[in-house]
Amino acid sequence: MTTPNGGPEAGTSPPASGPGAETTPPASGPGEGAATTSPARRREAATTPPTGGPESATAPPVPAVQPYYARHATALADRYESLAFETVHRDFLPLLPPPPARIADIGAGTGRDAAALAARGHTVLAVEPVPELRALARGLHPSPSIHWLSDALPGLPRLRDETGRLDAILLSAVWMHLPEPSRPPAMRRLHDLLAPGGRLFLTLRHGPPPEDRQMYDIPAHETVALATRHGLRPLQHAQAIDHLARDHVHWSTLTFEKDHP
């Protein structure tokens, strides 16, 4: 989990390899929005717009997210790791489940958030499609409580065995990489992965999107409405500054809870 200002944005692109890759926990065990150059994470990296979608029909092609994170992994790790989990995700701290919980960090980037959650007593599934970021993360944050795998929204096929089992999901600086047609199926998948009463923690970047990778300024109210339609009840909504002090950038933090049947 990496919130508004520091985390990879890689977790929204399709993986390059087939199912089951890198699902084995490392022998020794976060990152917000690399696409936002935010220091806390890595994940939101690859959300290639579907062919024929609204955006592709009205705008020139935008470079995909994952290649950007792969090229700049080392530099982005310095930014992500410069911010503490508690600083970036302060709005989420009172709402985290008590340990031990099973938590997925989607777009885990350099592992900052995954490591912080593991240190709190949780088992963490760190989902990161960019191999360069996964390699850095394993070196920076070795932990037997962090299990790394390559997967991405909207489908997250390699998490199929986790359906209905997760106590929480963190998407820090990832959702902003999803084109509009991919958002409903992605939200449906997140809902299905959560156990009843499980919580979804999500950050949104606001401000002019960069031109060198796919990113969207998605209104918070649109995301709240979409989550509500998919059975996720809003618990928290706050505004946050950009901890990297970038001009014209700010964040929304959103928390949702899956209803009990």
Element layout with pairings:
Layout: E1 9-10, E2 44-45, H1 54-58, H2 65-71, H3 73-81, H4 85-88, E3 102-106, H5 112-119, E4 123-127, H6 131-140, E5 146-149, E6 166-171, H7 183-193, E7 194-206, H8 220-229, E8 232-241, E9 250-258
Parallel strand pairs: 1-2, 3-4, 3-6, 4-5, 6-7
Antiparallel strand pairs: 7-9, 8-9
Count every beta strand, where a strand is a DSSP E run of 2 or more residues. Answer: 9
Rg calc: 16 Å
> What form results from the Cα inertia axes?
globular
Q: Please estimate the helix content.
A: 10-25%
How far apart lie the N and C ends? 27 Å
User: What structural category arises from helix and sheet content?
Assistant: alpha/beta
Largest sheet: 7 strands, mixed
List SSEs in N-to-C order: EEHHHHEHEHEEHEHEE
Strand order of the largest sheet: 5-4-3-6-7-9-8
Query: Please, how many helices?
Result: 8
- In percent terms, what proportion of residues is strand? 15-25%
Spans of at least 5 consecutive residues with low confidence: 13-60
What value does the average pLDDT take? 83
What does this structure look like?
By secondary structure, the protein is of the alpha/beta class. The chain has eight helices and nine strands. It has a seven-stranded mixed beta sheet with strand order 5-4-3-6-7-9-8, with helices on both faces. β3, α5 and β4 (123-127) form a beta-alpha-beta unit. Mean pLDDT is 83; it is low at 13-60.
